Recover the amino acids of this structure.
């Protein structure tokens, strides 16, 4: 029998190991080596990270999704982790709470520097985005029909006494939109 505990395979190779454990011993220097061990997964992970200077982003060099987030599917201790920044946080600080996200302070989706990451809810992440003005507002909103220059013209025309209806027709929007622009309920950033 193989000398590895709970391995019931017959010993066919030297050193008291079965064939599987002997190959692990020859390849990795450890007959108990497992590709699923946290140590091996961490080694595999950090091999794909470009650690820059202190305080800077550590760029993920592996596969990325369409939004630029690093991707590496790993299952450690029953927990499946897919995104590289979540793995980085896991390797640095331990198990990830299921209801929290790993957010970037640096706003760089491919960054895996643990010092740039923090735990937060979806609401915390959205508040951080709004505070840093990274959300789609104004012209950056894909649904926007007006440009900032149009809004400034609308406000000027309103100050000159033109009606909301006439201005709305000129800019192909509703008079309700013109009213909200005049009260700064819309486009309040300019």
């Amino acid at each position: 029998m193989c000398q590895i505990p709970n391995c019931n395979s017959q010993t066919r190779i030297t050193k008291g190991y079965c064939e599987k454990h002997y190959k692990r011993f020859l390849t990795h220097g450890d007959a108990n080596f497992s590709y699923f061990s946290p140590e091996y997964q961490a080694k595999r992970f950090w091999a794909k990270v470009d650690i820059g200077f202190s305080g800077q982003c550590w760029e993920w060099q592996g596969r990325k999704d369409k939004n630029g987030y690093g991707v590496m599917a790993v299952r450690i201790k029953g927990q499946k982790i897919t995104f590289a920044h979540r793995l980085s946080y896991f390797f640095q600080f331990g198990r990830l709470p299921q209801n929290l996200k790993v957010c970037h302070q640096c706003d760089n989706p491919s960054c895996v520097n643990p010092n740039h990451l923090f735990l937060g809810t979806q609401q915390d992440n959205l508040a951080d985005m709004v505070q840093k003005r990274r959300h789609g507002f104004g012209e950056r909103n894909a649904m926007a029909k007006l440009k900032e220059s149009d809004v400034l013209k609308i406000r000027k025309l309103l100050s000159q006494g033109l009606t909301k209806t006439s201005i709305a027709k000129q800019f192909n929007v509703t008079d309700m939109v013109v009213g909200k622009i005049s009260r700064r309920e819309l486009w309040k950033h300019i």
Q: What stands out?
A: The first helix runs from residue 19 to 28. The beta strands are 49-50, 59-60, 71-76, 79-83, 101-104, 117-120. Helices lie at 19-28, 38-46, 84-93, 122-131, 148-159, 164-171, 175-182. The first strand starts at residue 49 and ends at 50.
